[in-house]
From TrEMBL:
Organism: Amycolatopsis bullii
Transmembrane regions: none
SMART domains: Flavin_Reduct
Protein name in UniProt: Oxidoreductase
Positions of the UniProt region annotated as Disordered: 1-27
Keyword hit for Zinc: no
Keywords for this protein: Oxidoreductase
InterPro entries: Flavin_Rdtase-like_dom, NADH-dep_flavin_reductase, Split_barrel_FMN-bd
Length: 194
């Protein structure tokens, strides 16, 4: 090996330029900091005797083989009890024009049980019977395979039984305490709460 002027004949690693020193403007809570992390928006649903839906952005893919996803739900939330009872859940990935659907399932004043689905268009999942939000970008039906503790939340790991993609291309996002969207959203909102 030819010597290029460094010890052992290897080139020294180039140092990256240092960013300018910047003072932190103020202390922030974890909630304020995490609000700067843009996420997709889903409606998490579970079937069972009562059924329940909840807007959620603490959701991600975990593994492709086997196909696993995870979602995080507060232990005090009604959804926690419903998933534990049903042993399955579904995820509807919301489209850019489904802000009102997201708001509906985030509103603690909505009806309980199956009645909360009367305000939206939905279909019954083929594998679990769990309500799936019509007009979403994608849907996953999952069997609950593991539950991990995570402070005041539980981490639910689901094995994907069925994955379906819708036809839209504009996704609903949540950033800085506001809903945003990618792409172009149609002028009329077909998927809004009636």
């Amino acid at each position: 090996m030819a010597d290029n002027g460094s010890a052992g004949g290897h080139r020294p690693i180039a140092r990256l330029p240092r960013p300018p020193t910047q003072r932190l403007s103020r202390q922030a809570s974890q909630r304020e900091v995490m609000a700067q992390f843009a996420t997709g928006v889903t409606v998490l649903t579970a079937g069972g005797r009562d059924g329940h839906g909840m807007t959620a952005n603490a959701f991600t893919s975990l593994s492709l083989e086997p196909p696993l996803v995870l979602c995080c739900v507060a232990k005090a939330a009604r959804m926690h009890e419903v998933i534990m009872s049903a042993r399955s859940f579904a995820v509807s990935v919301l489209a850019g024009d489904q802000q009102e659907v997201a708001r509906h399932f985030a509103d603690s004043r909505r009806p309980r049980g199956r009645a909360q689905f009367d305000a939206i268009e939905w279909v019954r999942g083929r594998r679990t019977g769990t309500p799936l939000v019509a007009g979403a970008l994608a849907w996953l039906e999952c069997e609950l395979v593991k539950v991990y503790g995570g402070g005041d939340h539980s981490i639910f790991v689901g094995e994907v039984l069925e994955a379906t993609r819708g036809v839209g291309d504009s996704a609903l996002l949540f950033h800085g305490g506001r809903f945003e969207h990618t792409g172009t959203v149609p002028a009329h909102d077909k998927k809004a709460i009636s």
